[in-house]
Structures are given as C-alpha cells and as structure tokens.
What we know:
The chain has about 400 residues and is mostly beta strands. It contains no helices and 33 strands. It has strands at about 15-25, 25-30, 65, 80-85, 90, 95-100, 105-110, 115-120, 125-130, 135-140, 145-150, 155-160, 165-170, 180, 195-200, 205-210, 220, 225-230, 235-240, 245-250, 260, 265-270, 275-280, 285-290, 295-300, 305-310, 315-320, 325-330, 335-340, 350-355, 360-365, 370-375, 385-390.
Amino acid sequence: MSFPFQRQLQRHGRATIVAGAAVAGLLVVGASGTAFALTGTFSSAPTSAHAAAGGNSEGAPHWTISKTIGKPLFKTAAKSTVKKADGAAAALPGYAYVAVAGGYEVLKVDIATGTFVAEYGDDTGEGVAISPDGSTAYIASTGQYDVLATNTTTGAQTSIEVGAYPQDVAVSPTGSLVYATVTGGDTGPGGSNVVAVINPATDTVKGDITVGTAPRQVVFSPDGSRAYVTTSDGVYVINTATSHVVRVIPDFDDPQGIAISPDGSTLYVTNPDAGALWQINAATGHVTGVVNAGAEPQAVTTNGTDIYVADMNSNSVDILSAATGKVTGSIAVQGLPMAIAATPDGSEVWVGNGYTGSVSIISTATNTVAATISGGGQATALNSAITDIAFGPAS
C-alpha cells in the first residue's frame, strides 16, 4: 500500500559527514584525500543511467562502560528462536556489534546478558557488517583506506585496501560477497563514486563498481541478487551476479539511510535535507510514496510491521506503519540518533546516539525504550558517536 504523500520536496545541498579523519575525536565534514586506484573495475557506468524515476591507535580515546543493561534483553534466549507475528520462526542474534566511530573501535555486546565481551580497533570506523555464521566482522575503517576483516573470536584483523574513506559495508545473505562504499577522495576509480567488491574467501578486492558521487549506505536484497546504494544523486541498483548497475533511481535530495523490507519488495530511503522518507518499489524502481519523517531523518530500519526512522535533530525515533505509511508514534531517545537497526527476530530496535555515545534499545512490542547502554569516560560531544549497529549469531 502506498504512503500518504507529499510530493513536493525541498531540493538543496547537504554537507555529508564522511569522517575521512579524526581530529580531537570529532568527525570531519567533507574531508578530502588522494584517490586510491584499484584494479579489476567491473563497470565504468550504469547500464541505463536514470532509466527509472588491530588495537586502538596511540592516544586514541577509549570508550568505557558506565553501566550495563543488568538483565537479559531476551528472556527466551535459551530457546534460540521466537515466533514472529506471522508465525514464522526467526533466530535470535547472539551478539550486537556497535561501531563507535569517535572511539576508534567496534564493541561486541552479548545480547543475552547485556554485557560487553570484546572490542576491535579501527580508525574512525563508521560501518560494520557480520558474516552469516558470525565468525567475521567487516569494519569500514573510515579514517583510512581499509575494510578490516576481523575474527570475532580472536580479534585478529586482516586489512583489505578498498579506497579512500570507506563509509559503509554489507555482507550478502550467503556470505559470498562483501560490498564497501568508498566515500572520500576524488571521483574516479577508487575515489568517491565506487563500491568495492570484496571476496571474503581471500579477503581481497575483486574489483569496483562505479556508482554515483559520494556513495553512503548499501544493503543487499534478502535473496542476494541485488544491492542498493544511496549516493548524492540517487539510489543505484546493482546486479550482484554481473556486478553491473542495472537501474538508477533519481533522488537529488541527498539520500542517506536505506533499509529493505524482509520480503525484499520495498526500499525505504531517508532524505535528511527534505525531512522525508521515500518508499520505493524494489522490483520496478518506482517511488510509491514520500512522507514527512521528522527533523533530519538520518537512518531507517524495519521489522516488517513498522518502520523506524532516526531523526537526528529531534532526538527521537519516528514510527510508521509499513501497511499504511502513516506516522503512528514518536519515541524520545538521546542526543543525535545516527544509527538504527532491528534485531533479526524483530523484537528490538537498537538506536545509536551520536552526541551521547549511547544505545537506546526499543521494545517493538510496546514501542518504548526498554534499556539504555551508556558510554563513559570521553563519550561526549560526538567523541564516541555510534554510527552503525549490526547483529550476528554466536560463532
């Protein structure tokens, strides 16, 4: 069903946080750098453009814990599965992985106990994704040129050079592909219009796919046949079998966050400048609706029933019905919510707060904040901004 829409949107530029380097622990806006060339380019242009409307660095701030949750997040965790509303069983994740960009690390959280069990160093790592078996965390080390393939048990890391300032990373459902958005540097191969394709079997770059300028977020379809990338001029659709762009969905309101429905039929894209959320038919690329979504909506996730949008400038999360597109509520969280992710079973939504360096955990049964993981030490004023959250099974 379509959203109730407002078709007229503002169109103006937006300074995107790409965090190319860290200065006094703060994210640098619009950082530039030298283009990093890669071999093995898959495609230099879309097939039909616009066809369809190891350890922390010395002196780095260290994220410390002032309190833990103090109780299991999932009381049914020992059963390993829960029943969703539609009766389907979904595996409970064993761990959450929280990218703390300003703290130069990714934190591993034991969901059943609400405690931190490991930390993996990086350089201003903004993105994290987990292999299906939970054995490897792929960290976009945004302050450098690397994706760090990290053994989630031992913490051992392999550095994979992808290009300047990778912002986001995603693993295909089968675990056979890893995509990284290369955000910084000049345009051109390995620059700011590239998605690097990583072979996880060898931890090497197979090649890169040319997309729009400043690629931000990337998500795979549930069947792994497509990948969707937000850029400064729209959403690029990639055929993962051929590594070619097969469609560009124009969006000149500087799209940022992206999520896909569990059945793969619908994309949700945030437009922070316009204060809007787009609903897109994934099969056709047609925009089926636009709805107002708070003050600077940065990130979006869905559990299939509801859509959750992190509104940075209102310190809140908007809730929309996936069936009607109507806003059904708003949940207050802490300062500058920048990242949001639903657990695989859909019972929790985790919200990363940029200003306070904390995670607000929303129960989707009540749509209230059920718990908060708080940072300590230097976790203030974006110094430990939470920029991404991913979930993985016990490995």
